[in-house]
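One such given next:
>
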Amino acid sequence: LCAYLMALRWRPGRALKSMLAFAVATPLAAILFYSIKYAISAAAFEKSISLAMLFSSGSIMYVGFFHMLPEALKANQGGISAGGSSKKSEKFDVLLLVTLGSVSAACFGFIPHDH
C-alpha cells in the first residue's frame, strides 16, 4: 500500500499517516466487535462478524483483481521471455496460477473446525 501511495506521488508524511491508520483499523475493529459480543445476541454477533469479514475479503479481492493482476500482466508484457515461452503461454501461466490460488483458498472452507 505504501508503494502504491508513493507511486501516486503522496508526500511521505501523508503516506505514513495513512499507513498508520490502515494498520490500526483492524485491531480496533476486532476490539470493538469482541467488546459488543455479550451485549447482543449470538446470532446477531455472528451475522455482524460475517458481514465485516465479507467486506474485508471483498476489499482484498478488489485490490488483487483490479490493481495487482493488471500490473503483473502489464509487467509481464515483453514478447519472448528468457525461457523461450511466448506471451500467450505466459498469460496462460498467470491465469492458471490465479485460478489455482483461488481454488486452494476456497478449499480452506472445507476444513472442519470448531467454534
Summary: The two ends are 33 Å apart (CA to CA).
